[in-house]
Design goal:
Strands 1-2-3 form a 3-stranded antiparallel beta sheet, with helices on one face. It is built from 4 helices and 3 strands; from the N terminus they run ααααβββ. With about 130 residues, it is of the alpha+beta class. The protein is globular and about 45 Å long.
Length: about 130
């Protein structure tokens, strides 16, 4: 089922026209670099931590149902900003997601646990 949180416009865009022009002017990789490096969000976008919280709340709600596997598909830029934020990765050493790369997420108590490319297991509180 399509979900506008995961794309069009995604969890980080709040003003599509303004953000869209910026994406065209500087490119997607530069936008993600700015999202991970700056405290202030790029024009037309919400903060990276606020956008990440939106995605994590959605995942937590979906994973709260009966035991099953779920697959969420999003743009590489959304995945890059989310992974970079969750792991606190340095902008200069950040590795862009490959085609069909995956962030594995599962619930554990009051946290979401996650794993990406062998960086080690991380966790984030479900509500924040």
């Amino acid at each position: 089922m399509p979900d506008h949180l995961l794309g069009d416009p995604g969890p980080f865009v709040v003003e599509p026209e303004l953000a869209g022009r910026l994406f065209l002017d500087v490119g997607i990789e530069e936008i993600v670099r700015r999202q991970l490096a700056d405290d202030q969000p790029p024009g037309g976008m919400r903060s990276t931590s606020s956008g990440a919280k939106l995605v994590l709340r959605e995942l937590a709600a979906a994973l709260n149902g009966p035991a099953s596997a779920s697959v969420f598909v999003t743009h590489d830029a959304v995945l890059a900003a989310l992974v970079g934020h969750l792991y606190g990765l340095p902008v200069d050493g950040f590795c862009w997601p490959d085609y069909l790369d995956a962030l594995v997420v599962w619930p554990h108590s009051d946290r979401l646990r996650f794993l990406w490319r062998g960086l080690g297991e991380g966790s984030h509180p479900v509500g924040g």
